[in-house]
Amino acid sequence: MDLIREKLAQLEEKSLQLQKQGKYGESLDTLEEAFNLKINAYGENSEEVIKTSEKLCELCNLIAMVCLTRERFDACFEFLKKAKVLCQNSPNFKAVTYNNMACYYRRTGKIRTALDYLNKALQIEITQEKSQSLADTHLNLCAVLSQLGKHESALEHVLMSIVLLQEEYIQNIGRNINNNNQNTNFNNEEYKEFNDRIAVLAIAFHNLGVELEFLKRYEEAIQTYKKAVKFSIENLGENHNLVENLKNVLAQAEKQIQQQQENQIKRKIIKGNTTSIRINKATGIYGPKDQEQKRATTTYTIQNQKQNNINKSPKTSLRPLTSNYATNKYQSQKNDNIKQFSENSINDVSPE
């Protein structure tokens, strides 16, 4: 039995090191070898086997999301199917897997299926005393509901996400203060995860701004975009990629919202002029100067209507409004917001 334990320890350490090197396929093969050895040694329902199945589930989820970022959709789906089998005895990992299934279906254009999986994840998480990914599920629900045009519901979910993420942020700050008092610091992995969660909160502020803008609450939207920029600068630094993205969103939003407000004022003026023309026409006092004014007003109205069409539909907008997906420990999207994986991280990944 001691020889088996020694062999298992070697396999698990090897798997961990391979994962750190980005060799996810080799890491998975090594961990599966340890998993099968544990089944033979301890039995399928043993605690050791359950713990390793959770590690396998976590790794399959991670590989699936790497494949998704590279648009290797078939491979992504295969690893998610493995994860679904492995997570049956773990509500937390089942919720994570359902979240990632939603990522997959959203990226492949099956938005309502994505919504179904997110609702399944939410039902699991709200029954857990302490869910690790509830904030991310709410944020992902915001993104999917926004894509379906359900902006009131999307707003509710992003607000819930922000509440949970702020609680998490305060707890992490408190933990950092305690570490400083004890002359200890976050290790590199903890520090990276802390920054990743800060970035998710900044993205949540951005999504809140997007939903407020969709609901034509423009002043609130601008203030929220500003909050996202300020928060990300204070916590991630001026040179972080996300800061630049959020600054661009704010600048474009201010410009477009100002244009929309100017258009509204012009429409009111035009409406007033049109009413005046109808009154003059009815009373029969239509002189040459009035005719020139009418032509000018009509031409301007046509141009204004074209501009209105651009701003009215998000599909043809100069600045498409999009609520972003959460990026957590197991998820990575192509927003250039959080760089989680190296360029060579899936070279050895292939589904069985």
Automatic annotation (TrEMBL):
TPR repeat segments: 95-128, 202-235
**SMART domains for the chain:** TPR
**Keyword tags:** Coiled coil, Repeat, TPR repeat
Q: Where is the signal peptide?
A: none
Q: Sorted alphabetically, which InterPro entries does this protein's record hold?
A: TPR-like_helical_dom_sf, TPR_rpt
Q: Which residues form a coiled coil?
A: 215-263
Q: Which PROSITE patterns does UniProt cross-reference here?
A: TPR
The record's region (Disordered) falls at 328-352
The identity of this protein, by name, is: Tetratricopeptide repeat protein
